[in-house]
From TrEMBL:
Iminosuccinate binds at residues 68, 86, 157-159, 174, 242-244, 259. It catalyses: iminosuccinate + dihydroxyacetone phosphate = quinolinate + phosphate + 2 H2O + H(+). Catalyzes the condensation of iminoaspartate with dihydroxyacetone phosphate to form quinolinate. Its EC number is 2.5.1.72. Belongs to the quinolinate synthase family. Type 2 subfamily. The lineage of its organism: Bacteria, Pseudomonadati, Pseudomonadota, Alphaproteobacteria, Hyphomicrobiales. This is Quinolinate synthase. Its cofactor is [4Fe-4S] cluster. Pathway: Cofactor biosynthesis; NAD(+) biosynthesis; quinolinate from iminoaspartate: step 1/1. GO terms for cellular component: cytosol.
Amino acid sequence: MASPAEVLRSTIRGEGHSFTPKPQAPSARDLYAKVSHAVPAIEWPVYAAEIDAIMTLKRTRNAVVLAHNYQTPEIFHCVSDIVGDSLALAREAMTVDADVIVLAGVHFMAETAKLLNPSKTVLIPDLGAGCSLADSITPADVRRLRAAYPGVPVVTYVNTSAAVKAESDICCTSGNAKAVVESLGVDRVIMLPDEFLARNIAAQTDVKIISWSGHCEVHELFTAQEVRDLREDYPGVVVLAHPECAPEVVAEADFSGSTAAMQAYVARERPAKLVLLTECSMSDNVAVLHPDLDFVRPCNLCPHMKKITLRNIRRSLETMQHAVEIDPSVADRARLAVERMLAVK
Ligand code: 13P
Ligand code: SF4
């Protein structure tokens, strides 16, 4: 009989948002045509050498690269095996059939992959790839909130440390936050640490949401006035905003959703002129798939996501550093919160 973990795995398999499992990647020489819109020709020879080295190392190490939508095109389109939003990466991390997972993203994503694959080696190429949301809250903060609101369940955004997840009842991502909140069948939840995500979800549900004061340092920079200026400067532009943006920004946008939901919107609606209010590489990556659409490009860089490069992915596979380890007493409780999220339809 299948174990509970196997049942959970088969339940969630294939329900990720926008990941694109890729066949064995071709050599660097064949890849340039795909990313030529986004990668200057002068940079390509350096990238090509790194890409070929990474392809070889992936084979010798039996490794896969999971890349978030905010990774640069030469990583996202050229060396990654699985790409997507935080939810897709978490889901797909469970189906990986390799010994080594390199997480081209930020540290909490690598921790999530490790939680779901405790027996595999999970590598993050730069330990400094953090997240302002993950830094905004500690396990002690969660315990204090629980004491202040006895009996109210804690929904924790995946953009947190494993230690914070361990204090939580269930995790969520921007792709499933509303469904997770409503799955609990209660009239009030604590949702942390992103204040803006919590307020944006509160606007879509009858469940009362108690929030924390964390912000994404990238998305908090967008303003409602910026959206109004964009509409004036680019008549007809369609505005998509990530739900980590302030509610006033989301209110001015035509659509709000996770990075995968934005990508799906673009594929479905094909707006002739559009702007993605999110991290800069997102537009580059979506534009590679839709070269005929006109992307207006005000964006903000995530300094943490940008710490990952082809060079440190290669180094990571050469040296097998930095392997993510999670304290077992934390890991078991954190895993439960992530698995509960993955079981929500
Ligand atoms: P997504 O889950 O929408 O990919 O967002 C992750 C993230 O870090 C956004 O800033
Ligand atoms: Fe964290 Fe914001 Fe960077 Fe995403 S974009 S990793 S939420 S700092």
